[in-house]
Amino acid sequence: MTKLTPNDESARIQRFRMRLTNELNQLLLLRESSSESRAAVHLDQQSVGRLSRVDAMQSQQIAIAADRQRQRQIARIQRALSQMDSGEFGRCLDCDNDIAERRLEADPATPLCVSCASLRAV
After folding, report:
1. Mean pLDDT of all residues belonging to the chain
2. Which backbone phi and psi does 98 adopt, to 5 degrees?
3. What share of the chain has pLDDT > 70, as a percent?
4. Measured between alpha carbons, how far is 118 from 5 in angstroms, rounded to an integer?
5. d(Cα 69, Cα 79) in Å, to the nearest integer?
6. What is the rounded CA–CA span in Å between residue 85 and residue 32?
7. For the chain, what are the domain ranges?
8. Can you give the pTM of this predicted structure?
């Protein structure tokens, strides 16, 4: 990574912080708005038969799986924001090398450099 002046680095971090904060807020709103679809399945009087219950349970499971994925992304974003506060943002969690700028541009919450991510994928 090219050595940036403190002002350039601050502007870079602020740009990533704004992106991550916006994404975090969207995820939290989506999580809140979808809470009803993750609730226990209660059939109303219009629901008829076993298939309606199976459909409702399947929809509930899909909503729960989507929420788990949102929770993982929320945790990744919160970790990245914490790293910004501690001055560790942009460092790989495994090898402590800099994460490539293009990788951070694609996903500012990424915790790993390309090399370490590819090792974990194997």
Report:
1. 87
2. -65, 140
3. 84
4. 31
5. 15
6. 27
7. 6-88
8. 0.77
DSSP-derived secondary structure for the chain: -PPPPHHHHHHHHHHHHHHHHHHHHHHHHHHHHTGGGGSPP---TT--HHHHHHHHHHHHHHHHHHHHHHHHHHHHHHHHHHHHHHT-TTB-TTT-PBPPHHHHHH-TT--S-HHHHHHHH-
At 38, the amino acid letter reads R
Dist CA 47 CA 55 (whole Å): 10
Range with lowest mean pLDDT among 20-29, 37-46, 92-101:
37-46
Residues 94 and 90: their CA atoms lie apart, in Å, by 12
Two structure tokens written together for 69: 């994925």
The neighbour count for residue 95, using CB atoms within 10 Å, is 13
Query: Residue 71: what residue type?
Result: Q
How far is Cα 99 from Cα 53, in angstroms, rounded to an integer?
Answer: 48
